[in-house]
Recover the amino acids of this structure.
């Protein structure tokens, strides 16, 4: 008590009574391999008649198309014959493009242009994490959809992340795959709120291993989403080559087919679809499920928004050979593209942590309790402190149980918290440590629903 004057005092409330708040679970960290300059195609013109020659005029307006850059690819035909010595300029600075001929086209000759506007875009410096809360912020830092494989895979991943429910992600680019391990992951490690890590389209074994080590060893509080190969010769674990077993990551196959504006510009008569890695869309589904149901709900049996088709059709028989090893299939079921797997990499070999939601729930609980009990540092290591820690963790886990994340009819059945003289003997206290033991009963997904059907005859009267 703090005495202000005789007979007047104020009772101080210790800071240790602050309740534990759950940490975020769906902020993603995306890594891409992008060059220092990418080509961003614009509007395409095919067979556009821009005028007729008169034998004297050399400059013709392209009145419909504003100038984006003079870097666009174009070809000109005069009277059906391709000609050279033509430049694309904007000589009158009217925000309209102009064709300038070295030699004036012959009188009455029809002039036709095939043109694809383009712009060179310089993304942010390599090894610079950028927070994006919408796709427009991504395009300002890394460019819109382009013809560069690395950039457009990352762009579609981030777009798919937001389209499927994601709200926050940090994006970092490198110029080589090797820099993922030596540079990018170190930069992301310093950002505490990241809970999911992916490198869309990167199937290099070394990069995958580095990402898993980042989640499992370096940070111990993150989960990796990895992509299967773009093309395969068979639907077997050997052909798909997943990384070594880990409970800190998940592996998805096949790639998704999505609408891509650049593909459509390049081939206006085609379907405009592009195969892209699924990890960005899957990360968005993780975020969507976390928000709508909670981290304890498996991110499966969920529609992949924005996916039009799949690069491979997976049958039930195919999946039966992949699911036990932790290869999560994405399937077309009744006209919907759905995630149809919820295993960590290794599947059945991972015992208690073979399910994605079980591992992510433990990451959530551990990180929440760790951050929520930081007030205990430098407090007197006494029974009073032990009771405060136990009370705070119990209150937090009770809320988690009420949300349906823990199994049990009562809170006592669902978890226990032990922080007393048994967990904190004199030798432990002498080291400046306070140890709390927490046990929880988790809810596992109903991966296989079994129906038992029977027939019986109605007894005669």
């Amino acid at each position: 008590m703090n005495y202000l004057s005789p007979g007047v005092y104020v009772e101080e409330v210790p800071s240790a009574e602050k309740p534990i708040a759950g940490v975020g679970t769906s902020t993603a960290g995306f890594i891409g391999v992008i060059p220092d300059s990418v080509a961003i195609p614009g509007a395409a013109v095919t067979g556009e008649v821009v005028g007729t020659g008169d034998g004297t005029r050399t400059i013709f307006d392209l009145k419909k198309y504003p100038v984006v850059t003079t870097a666009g690819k174009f070809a000109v035909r005069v009277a059906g014959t391709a000609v050279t010595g033509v430049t694309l300029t904007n000589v009158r600075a009217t925000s309209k493009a102009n064709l300038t001929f070295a030699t004036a086209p012959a009188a009455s000759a029809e002039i036709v242009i095939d043109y694809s506007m383009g712009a060179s875009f310089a993304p942010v410096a390599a090894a610079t994490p950028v927070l994006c809360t919408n796709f427009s912020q991504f395009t300002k830092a890394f460019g819109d959809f382009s013809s560069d494989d690395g950039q457009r895979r990352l762009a579609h991943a981030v777009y798919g992340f937001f389209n499927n429910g994601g709200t926050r992600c940090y994006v970092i680019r490198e110029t080589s795959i090797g820099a993922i391990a030596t540079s990018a992951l170190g930069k992301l490690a310093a950002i505490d709120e990241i809970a999911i890590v992916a490198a869309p389209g990167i199937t290099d074994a070394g990069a995958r291993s580095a990402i898993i080590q980042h989640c499992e060893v370096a940070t111990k509080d993150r989960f990796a989403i990895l992509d299967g190969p773009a093309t395969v010769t068979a639907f077997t674990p050997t052909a798909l080559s997943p990384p070594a077993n880990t409970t800190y990551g998940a592996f998805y196959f096949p790639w998704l087919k999505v609408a891509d504006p650049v593909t459509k510009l390049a081939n206006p008569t085609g379907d405009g679809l592009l195969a892209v890695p699924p990890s960005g869309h899957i990360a968005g589904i993780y975020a969507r499920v976390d928000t709508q149901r909670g981290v304890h709900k498996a991110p499966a049996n969920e529609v992949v928004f924005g996916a039009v088709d799949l690069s491979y059709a997976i049958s039930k028989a195919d999946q039966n050979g992949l699911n036990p090893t932790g290869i999560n299939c994405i399937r077309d079921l009744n006209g919907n593209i759905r995630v149809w797997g919820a295993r960590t990499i290794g599947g059945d070999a991972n015992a208690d942590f073979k399910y994605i939601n079980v591992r992510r729930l433990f990451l959530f609980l551990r990180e929440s309790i760790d951050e929520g009990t930081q007030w205990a540092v430098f407090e007197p290591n006494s029974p009073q402190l032990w009771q405060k820690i136990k009370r705070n963790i119990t209150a937090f886990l009770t809320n988690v149980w009420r949300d349906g994340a823990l199994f049990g009819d009562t809170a006592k059945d669902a978890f226990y918290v032990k922080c007393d003289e048994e967990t904190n003997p004199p030798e432990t206290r002498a080291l400046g440590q306070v140890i709390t033991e927490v046990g929880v009963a988790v809810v596992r997904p109903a991966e296989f629903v079994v129906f038992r059907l029977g027939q019986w005859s109605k007894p005669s009267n």
Observations:
- The chain is about 30% helix and 25% strand.
- The chain has three domains: 1-20+373-461, 28-37+123-357, 41-120.
